[in-house]
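Team,

Forwarding the record for the chain on the shared tracking sheet. I've put the sequence and predicted structure together so nobody has to dig through attachments.
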Amino acid sequence: MAVFIALTILSVAGLFLRQSSLRFRAATAPAPGEKEPAFSRPAYLAWLKRRSRELRSKEALARGWTALKAWTAARYPGPLRWIFIALSASFIWQAAGGFAFAFFSPRGIFGLPLLVHVGSGGLFAINLAAMMFWRARDYGFNGAGTASFEGFACPVFKSLSRRTLGKAAFWAFAFFGSVQIATALGSMLPVFTFEAQRSMISIHRYGALAVLLSAVLFADLVLVPFKSGETNASGDS
């Protein structure tokens, strides 16, 4: 469990630092023709502090809520909005409860929280399938954008666009979400041996981290508005 906790902290922190540094570079990009300055840690920390203060303001929260409602209404019109609402609510509950027990309980999740976790997992499974049926065709990789993401993850991906990465995050969420459903069901079926069920629980635990990272990356690229000077990554996603 200690390895999982350490990996979770490092991966979430690494994703946050990478995404925020890219936003910092985009927000402070020089005018066309000017040389891009070297990355400044003090300037980045000052920008991060300022942005954190801005995002906590009532005005920013209201703008974010308005933008989220508009995004949802355009992609999940009418009663279909409940697909997004139920999927988001069940995911947030499962992530909060699962990681809280993983971090602070040596025994892991158990008792009534486990029953609620399993129940919300069923809601998650139903709405993940509904989301894939309704939205999967809009996340094909044809006609991806051309804006460089400045080599996310490693220099090999310098030509990877933000829009393409957002689509990849969508499919990663769908894939690892399906892994979560399969391993949760498999760990409860008597047809598997005890060791096989233990392996499924371990896969379920690390799959949860992959789902979390995918969701955070997708939200940052597609849902979080970009400041002036940054290029919106969402496109039509």
